[in-house]
Specification:
By secondary structure, the protein is mostly helical. Helix content is 84%, strand content 0%. It is built from four helices and no strands. The longest helix is centred in the last third of the chain and has 31 residues, at 89-119. The chain is elongated, with a radius of gyration of 15 Å.
C-alpha cells in the first residue's frame, strides 16, 4: 500500500498542515492562490499512489515525472504564498522542511526506477 511509503506520509503531512492553515488565509487569496496550492498538493498525493501501484517501471516513471512536475508547481505556489505573507513564518519553515524531504524522496525514487528500467 502507498500509505506505507515515506514520501506518501510526508506529502500527506504537508497536505494536513496546509488544510489547517486554510481558515487563516486572507479572503482575497483563497480562490486565486490558496485553492490552487491545495489542489496541487492533493494531486501530488494521487500521483504518488499511482506511481506506487504501477507494476511496470516505464509506467511508474511516467507517474514519477508527473509527480515531480506537480511538485515544482506546488513549490511555486508555496513560494508565492510565502512572499505574500499568506503562511506564517514558523509554519512556512515547517512546510519548507517537509518539501525538502519530499523532493529528495521523489528524486531518489525516480532515479532508482530509471536505473531498474535500464537493467531489465
Amino acid at each position: 500500500m502507498a500509505d506505507t511509503a515515506k514520501v506518501y506520509n510526508k506529502t500527506y503531512e504537508l497536505l494536513q498542515k496546509l488544510f489547517r492553515i486554510s481558515d487563516d488565509v486572507p479572503k482575497k487569496w483563497r480562490r486565486a492562490l490558496w485553492k490552487k496550492t491545495l489542489d496541487a498538493a492533493t494531486d501530488l498525493i494521487a500521483l504518488i499512489i499511482y506511481a506506487y501501484e504501477s507494476k511496470a517501471y516505464n509506467e511508474r516513471l511516467v507517474y514519477l515525472d508527473r509527480a515531480l512536475t506537480k511538485f515544482t508547481v506546488l513549490n511555486t505556489y508555496l513560494r508565492l504564498c510565502n512572499e505574500n505573507a499568506i503562511i506564517p513564518t514558523q509554519k512556512m519553515t515547517n512546510i519548507a522542511e517537509l518539501t525538502s524531504d519530499i523532493s529528495q524522496q521523489l528524486g531518489s525514487w525516480r532515479k532508482a526506477t530509471a536505473e531498474r528500467m535500464k537493467s531489465v
